[in-house]
Amino acid sequence: MKRSVWPVRGERRWARRGTLVMALATTVTAAVATAAASSASSDNSESPSSRPLPTIASGAGVASIDGMTQIIGGSTPLSLSKGTAVPAYASLDAVAGLAQGWVDTGAIDMYGPPQDGKHGLQLPVPLAYAQQHPGPCEVFIRVLRFQSHDDALAALQEPELTGSYSPGYSLIDSGGVNGGIVAAVQSLANEGLDEYRFHWVSGNTWVEANVLGYDLALDAAQAVARQVQPHA
Amino acid sequence: MTRISARVRGFVVVGLLACSASIGVGQPADALVSCGTPNYYAGGLGQTNGDQWGGRAYIDTDTNLSFSHTNDNFSDQAIHAVDGNGGLEIGWYVGWGSETGTYVTAPHAYATLNGPQEIDGPNVGASDYLYTTHWNDARTQQIWSVKTFDGGTFVWSGSQATSTYTGPGEIVALGEVDASSLPMFGKFDGDPNTLDYYNISDNWVDWTGVTLCASPGFTVSGGRNTITDSGNL
């Protein structure tokens, strides 16, 4: 990396973020591509659900979140599933996708940028840190744009897309944002963090916002979810 | 409030493009012949539109499985079994969890029905564990466990209804996945005509119904096999 690339002031900070973003950008692309479902056959055909989608304008996610740093930004396929099964929702006509990840800036300052499984901040954010900083510490957003409003609405009813198949998914009667729904998600993978998942549809756009944190209140999660602007 | 600058976002794009060029869809992958149904893969399989999985095993002699692909970035499956109606899968991942909708950099266990109904498990770090999964007799439940080698202490276990995802039949499989960049390691055994698995009762059992397959130039047979790949971290 040439020195002239980075700002003079705060150089180390930006350099670290550059490394972070590069590493995570590479990682997330691979992860997204890998996680995508593929045909169960062995004919090298490509599942419609695993095709990379054109990226939605970056402003369609979250422009900024107080106290957080964006670590992931890019396209996402329709399906993030592992395995080879072609999901039933593959028939939905998705035309663009966006994924974003944000983490507490203080955690990056403490542990260093997340680089891989060995160095820097590990994700999920360590519980020991989160306990000292209650409230949102991770936000992951997926935005899928469909050909039609009906497809976007149909996506809202797909258990594999919403995660409602999971025994840890508990729909909350009220508390959704933008006319959508909200659920509490419990998973061992969250390592003690609370999670709220918001879904809503706006026009032909399906939006998911996962907000995680220790001792996370619903209203704090709502405040983050409301910042997602699918049509920006 | 912190927001990455346009300059840094530029690097995101560059990174994404560079990555796409190296591992993206459309990259030629060596052909894998159709193995019919049921069709089992041991040690991970290069997916059909890329090569990001744990590894692709080819049975090339009666004593060896060779890997033409090693994992680039993502999940290693301890076992992955599919047929036209569904399947089973257990392993660990780094990346997006379908249950949580989040991205993890620390290796976590997971179990799925070959994609659907993914349950994301605990952080397994760089430990060597045994991963097993099988169907119950009625094929209505997927049962899985992750346990240590020494004494078989359970790290994680569970079950879930298979819903409409009926699999190819009861299987039990063993695999060891190392998340510390050391080799992924699985053991499969068998006579010259079958591939065997190490079952939940700690016995080697013929893998009935398995379809052995190989790419052109490779010989298919059973026998004692050890498979490895390079892990992914």
Description:
By secondary structure, chain A is an alpha+beta fold. Chain A has six helices and seven strands. Chain A has helices at 11-35, 105-111, 127-132, 149-156, 159-162, 218-225; strands at residues 68-74, 94-104, 135-146, 169-172, 181-185, 194-202, 205-214. Chain A has a seven-stranded antiparallel beta sheet with strand order 1-2-3-7-6-5-4. Chain A is globular and about 45 Å long. The two termini of chain A are 32 Å apart. The model of chain A is unreliable at 1-48 (pLDDT under 50). Chain B has 233 residues and is mainly β. Helix content of chain B is 8%, strand content 40%. In chain B, strands 1-4-5-6-7 form a five-stranded antiparallel beta sheet, with no helix packed on it. In chain B, strands 10-9-8-11 form a four-stranded antiparallel beta sheet, with no helix packed on it. A two-stranded antiparallel sheet of chain B has the order 2-3. Chain B is flat, with a radius of gyration of 18 Å. The two termini of chain B are 31 Å apart. Mean pLDDT of chain B is 52; it is low at 1-84, 167-193 and 213-233. Chains A and B meet through helix 1, strand 1, strand 3 and strand 7 of A and helix 1, strand 4, strand 5, strand 6 and strand 7 of B.
Identify the most extensive interface between protein chains: A-B, 84 and 82 residues
* Large-scale geometry of chain B: flat
Helix percent band of chain A: 25-40%
Radius of gyration of chain B, taken over Cα atoms and rounded to an integer in Å = 18 Å
Distance between the termini of chain B: 31 Å
The largest sheet of chain A is: 7 strands, antiparallel
Beta-strand residue fraction of chain B? 35-45%
Low-confidence stretches of chain B: 1-84, 167-193, 213-233
